[in-house]
Design goal:
CATH superfamily of the largest domain in chain B: Alpha-helical ferredoxin
Mean pLDDT of chain A: 97
Mean pLDDT of chain B: 97
Order of helices and strands of chain B: EEHEEEEEHHHHHHH
Family (chain B): Belongs to the succinate dehydrogenase/fumarate reductase iron-sulfur protein family.
Strand content of chain A: 15-25%
EC number (chain B): 1.3.5.1
Number of domains of chain B: 2
Structural class of chain A: alpha/beta
Enzyme class (chain B): oxidoreductase
Number of strands of chain A: 20
CATH topology of the domain at 437-547 in chain A: Methane Monooxygenase Hydroxylase, Chain G, domain 1
Structural class of chain B: alpha+beta
Catalytic activity (chain B): a quinone + succinate = fumarate + a quinol
Low-confidence stretches of chain B: none
Oligomer: heterodimer
Cofactor (chain B): [3Fe-4S] cluster; [4Fe-4S] cluster; [2Fe-2S] cluster
């Protein structure tokens, strides 16, 4: 097959919030930039974020970045790196105000400032009471943000390659990153994008689970590409289960519903969160709420004929307030749950939502790997931001509204670092290895020639069911051990999938087969990392690591206060220290403590 | 809802294989959990992997899976299967070139969107904090900013079918008014100049197909009327 070659200063893979924010930085600095995206930019999954973006603007209640940093470190169950967390919380006001200047239609307070609402795990004065920190555009914050970022890129003349799927990362013998190969979906042609800098902003991989709030496109493409190219994946055992996915449908209901006063109730109508989190109640951190809900259901207090969900109740809020602050949620409830939340509560269950782990980066957006004794040595030419990256600001559990903040801060930061490295002359266009496209061509050829294989649909279904059963909200040693074995078997089957559709034009069967390769890397990383971590921390909770005096909440800091690194080759694990030291002297390290809400 | 079989008639065309498009009669057995048309399409694709359509969020906010459903444009992910007359006839969005099956070439649609300069223009030096806007002024943007660019409206509009290169179409005009209505934007005059043309704005004949099909319940016709009002106000 003929492989065209295109050369750019920088190539960005992904046009969601992180990719678009990075692209702005590069386009406005005049770098020749290509943004590759599987879908038209405004169809990226940032569009589905609802409740808000965190920033300590203090528009309605007193607030400051120190409190935000404390909440984020505590939310991460101390697995987050405190330098990156300080950086993010300090930058929050700047990046949110920038978005407002770009035209983002935030809701407003009576005095004309950006409207802010309470959100889970966000507090004033180090955990004392809920704070209004989530900057919101009704319950469509992600949509408003993504469109504003796309629009600003239209103004900046950013060059997009729409409906192009990146296939593989190109590295040379030194391990430096030289770009990617990509498939143009309309023609089926493969191209090489040769660049001095490559930024991955490919989003999450929530489609490894059977029940997920994620879009079909969230197939971990960047994470899979990085893993196949020898980059380790960090902390992949930590997956956020959002408390309120619509039961049966998986569609997200924002935590902003509880921020506006919504209450979770069990079969007897009890506000059960009072028992699990006496202080913040329904606004406790997501992992805490999801476990409480699962416990209620497991102990027979679930709702409905099968007692398999709980209820999210906002019937006590005024219809005017619901129409004004939660109009999208009302639409979703009517569409996917068949209830009007003004009149009846919404059936909800914890649903896979967000990947805390990912491609290891530092706060500058540089991808970092262990090398010559340095656990965080930058990979020349390679950057990542957003959900595909692990900075690590979310650690073992992300706070709501910190994901939109993450993609803004680190999208911008990665862009700034590339511009600096470019302008200092540090980035060079290194010669392409002669086999740059061979891996991708072999994958395409394998699909072209495969006969008597299983369908992508069947193998993918087996992966999703296995993940759901073996690596869910609560984790059990025997299920994890079996899960490692089963995912290895599924990975083997994925090597022999067959597609019937051989057309060159817009072949979605081929795209789905290539996506499965990426998902499989993520599933393997998750299962192996989870099986190995013999403690409970944040979203990773094992029944054999219970709450004891020695290990509060089952967290074992003596042995497990460290980041996991998983290597695809050989299914190998390594670990690196958590950075407990902030970036500057403006703040003391936030000392380890038991996490309660 | 339990298992049931649903009949479809689907527009198929693969330029790599087919000389011309054809309508395929096909049925599929649905699981109890399959409620939306998109669920049925995904089910169909698990049987015949060559069936091609765009999809992503499956909750009506990304705008990928717009198509013509029993003669009316809509999003597959927001359309209940039960209640649709069978066979369910699926065609690509009308008026745009078909690439394959239910996938259309949206270049012209986005060209028109881009032509209205869909970004905020404010040449004052950026303040340190947010620009202020009253809640009432912000409310003016409701019903405008929520557009998902699915193209249901523009591809149901006869004026857009006839002049897709000259008439901005309802989606682009809704976006134009979204910026005109924004108290932070300073380019109203340029925006009106850009639309003062026999085709770009004035091909709208208030047929209101756009309003009828918008899956987000938006009203481009009203926005177009307000642009016309602004032009009149400016002229006097």
């Amino acid at each position: 097959m003929n492989v065209a070659k295109r050369t750019f200063d920088a190539v960005i893979v992904g046009a969601g919030g992180a990719g678009l924010r990075a692209a702005l930085q590069l386009s406005e600095a005049g770098l020749k930039t290509a943004v590759l995206t599987k879908v038209f930019p405004t169809r990226s999954h940032t569009v589905a974020a609802q409740g808000g973006v965190a920033a300590s603007l203090g528009n309605s209640t007193e607030d400051n970045w120190h409190w935000h940093m404390y909440d984020t470190v505590k939310g991460s169950d101390w697995l987050g790196d405190q330098d990156a967390i300080e950086f993010m919380c300090k930058k929050a006001n700047e990046v949110v105000v920038e978005l407002e200047h770009y035209g983002m239609p935030f809701d407003r307070t009576d005095n004309g400032k950006i409207y802010q609402r309470p959100f889970g795990g966000h507090s004033m004065n180090y955990g004392q009471a809920p704070v209004m920190r989530s900057c919101a555009a009704a319950d469509r914050t992600g949509h408003a943000m993504l469109h504003a970022l796309y629009q600003r890129n239209v103004r900046a003349n950013t060059q997009f390659f729409v409906e192009w799927m990146a296939l593989d990362l190109i590295r040379d013998a030194d391990g430096d990153v030289l770009g990617v190969t990509a498939l143009e979906m309309e023609t089926g042609e493969i191209s090489i994008f040769h660049a001095k800098a490559t930024i991955f902003a490919t989003g999450g991989s929530g489609r490894i689970y059977y029940s997920s709030t994620n879009a079909f496109i969230n197939t971990g493409d960047g994470v899979g590409m990085a893993a196949r190219a020898g980059i380790p994946l960090e902390d992949m055992e930590f997956w956020q289960f959002h408390p309120t996915g619509v039961a049966g449908a998986g569609v997200l209901i924002t935590e902003g519903v509880r921020g506006e006063g919504g209450i979770l109730r069990n079969a007897s109508g009890e506000r059960f969160m009072e028992r699990y989190a006496p202080n913040l109640k329904d606004l406790a951190s997501r992992d805490v709420v999801s476990r409480a809900m699962t416990t209620e259901i497991n102990e027979g207090r679930g709702c409905g004929p099968d007692k398999d969900h709980v209820l999210l109740d906002i019937t006590h809020l005024s219809p005017e307030n619901i129409m004004k602050r939660l109009p999208g949620i009302r639409e979703i409830s009517i569409q996917f749950a068949g209830v009007d939340p003004i009149k009846a509560p919404i059936p909800v269950v914890p649903t896979c939502h967000y990947q805390m782990g990912g491609i290891p980066t530092n706060y500058k957006g540089q991808v970092v790997v262990p090398k010559d004794g340095n656990p965080n040595a930058p990979v020349s030419g390679f950057y990542a931001a957003g959900e595909c990256a692990c900075a690590s600001v979310h650690g073992a559990n992300r706070l709501g509204t910190n994901s939109l903040l993450d993609l803004l801060v680190f999208g911008k930061s990665a862009g700034e670092t590339v511009v600096e490295d470019f302008q200092s002359g540090q980035l060079k266009l290194k010669p392409l290895p002669s086999d740059a496209a061979d891996v991708s061509l072999a994958r395409i050829a394998r699909l072209e020639g495969q006969t008597n294989g299983e369908s992508v649909h069947e193998v993918g279904l087996e992966m999703r069911r296995t993940m759901q059963k073996h690596a869910g909200v609560f984790r059990f040693d025997n299920l994890l051990k079996e899960g490692v074995q089963k995912i290895a078997e599924v990975a083997e089957r994925a090597k022999h999938t067959e597609i019937k559709d051989k057309s060159k034009v817009w072949n979605t069967a081929r795209v789905e087969a290539l996506e499965l390769d990426n998902l499989i890397e993520v599933a393997r990383a998750t299962m192996v990392s989870a099986e190995a971590r013999k403690e409970s921390r944040g979203a990773h909770v094992r029944d054999d690591a219970p709450d004891t005096a020695e290990n509060p909440n089952g967290r074992d800091d003596a042995n497990w206060l460290k980041h996991t690194l998983w290597y695809s080759e050989g299914n190998r694990l390594d670990y690196k220290p958590v950075n407990l030291k902030p970036l500057s002297d403006d703040v003391e390290p936030i000392a380890l403590a038991k996490r309660t809400y | 809802m339990s298992k049931r079989t649903v009949q479809f008639k689907i527009y198929r065309y693969d330029p790599d294989r087919d000389e011309k498009p054809y309508m395929q009669d096909i049925s599929v057995e649905l699981e109890a959990s399959d409620k939306k048309l998109l669920d049925a399409l995904v089910r169909l694709k698990s049987v015949d992997d060559s069936l091609s359509f765009r999809r992503s969020c499956r909750e009506g906010v990304c705008g990928s899976d717009a198509m013509n459903i029993n003669g009316k444009n809509g999003l597959a992910c927001l359309t209940d299967i039960d209640g649709l007359p069978q066979p369910i006839v699926l065609r690509p969005l009308p008026g745009l070139p078909v690439i394959r099956d239910l996938i259309v070439d949206m270049t012209q649609f986005f060209k028109q969107y881009h032509s209205i300069k869909p970004y905020l223009v404010n040449n004052d030096p950026a303040p340190e904090r947010e620009r202020l806007q009253t809640p009432e002024d912000r409310e003016e943007l409701n019903g405008l900013y929520e557009c998902i660019l699915c193209a249901c409206c523009s591809t149901s509009c006869p004026s857009f079918w006839w002049n897709p290169d000259k008439f901005v179409g309802p989606a682009g005009l809704l976006a134009a008014y979204r910026f005109i209505a924004d108290t932070r934007d300073q380019a109203t005059n340029e925006r009106l100049d850009n639309l003062e043309d026999p085709y770009r704005l004035f091909r709208c004949h208030t047929i209101m197909n756009c309003v009828d099909v918008c899956p987000k319940g938006l009203n481009p016709t009203r926005a177009i009327g307000k642009i016309k009002d602004a032009m009149v106000r400016r002229a006097v």
